[in-house]
Design brief:
This protein is of the alpha/beta class. Helix content is about 35%, strand content about 15%. A 7-stranded mixed β-sheet has the order 3-2-1-4-5-7-6, with helices on both faces. The longest helix is centred in the N-terminal third of the chain and has 18 residues. The protein starts with a strand and ends in a 17-residue tail after the last strand.
Length: about 240
């Protein structure tokens, strides 16, 4: 079994999805992360003197985080941080479709189109890119040149958006996707915090993130956005429920 997590910035994998990644890695699931940007526009810069220096720093931090999270394969792509909304939508989806067809995951997890609790525009855009890649990777009439190059169409069976039980009161309102799946990853809370702290350039966020993660009680929440098997929504405790 394979799980693909698509994120926008280094540290998203730890703060948003870390418990779930550890949970499934422990169960023997092959876990993959595609992070679209190296996070070079971050406010917290870890002493970096340029965007390129910060990007290199954050790639190293991402690799360290992935090691703590037992990720099978993590990759940081080269799209521009804070500018995903300016990209050629079709071209980015084509890139992600190629990767989905190569990885061949059964389950894909990503942010919701609202941008998660922070409503970051990059989070919204990664949701849209990943959603279309999820759907189009399985269609032979989408990017057929990839099929001529040896790839095969691949339809992942389930797509989930990360969601939450709370928003950030001091920020503009965010309408979160309803919770349809809860992963109890309490046993991995400290490892998840350690993975986030591997992103040392983001040290000013550590106290707030640690408090937030403890507030969540070790649970990670998801919304089932699409599934190969049509039917009514059921509350789940396993993202691979019904996957064959």
């Amino acid at each position: 079994m394979r799980l693909l997590c698509v994120t926008a910035h280094p540290d998203d994998e730890a703060g948003g999805f870390g418990g779930t990644l550890l949970h499934y890695a422990q169960r023997g699931v092959e876990t993959h992360i595609l992070c679209l940007t190296p996070g070079q526009a971050a406010t917290n810069r870890g002493g970096a003197k340029s965007d390129d220096e910060l990007a290199a720093m954050r790639r190293r931090e991402f690799a360290a985080s992935c090691k703590i999270l037992n990720v099978s394969h993590g990759e940081v792509l080269d799209y521009p941080d804070a500018r995903l909304y300016r990209l050629d939508f079709y071209a980015v989806v084509e890139d992600l479709v190629r990767r989905v067809r190569s990885i061949r995951p059964q389950v894909v997890i990503t942010m919701g189109p609202e941008g998660s609790i922070t409503a970051h525009p990059d989070h919204s855009m990664v949701s849209l890119f990943a959603t279309m890649a999820f759907h189009w990777a399985g269609r032979s009439n989408r990017f057929p040149e990839q099929l001529k190059q040896g790839l095969e169409a691949h339809q992942a069976q389930k797509l989930y958006y990360l969601t939450s039980t709370f928003t950030i009161p001091e920020r503009p309102p965010v309408l979160l996707p309803p919770i349809t799946a809860v992963i109890d990853a309490a046993e991995f809370t400290e490892a998840k915090i350690a993975a986030f702290k591997a992103h040392s350039s983001q040290a000013p966020l550590f106290a707030r993130i640690e408090s937030t993660l403890h507030k969540r009680g070790g649970k990670e929440y998801f919304h089932l956005a699409a599934a190969a098997k049509p039917g009514p929504v059921e509350q789940e405790t396993d993202l691979f429920a019904g996957v064959v």
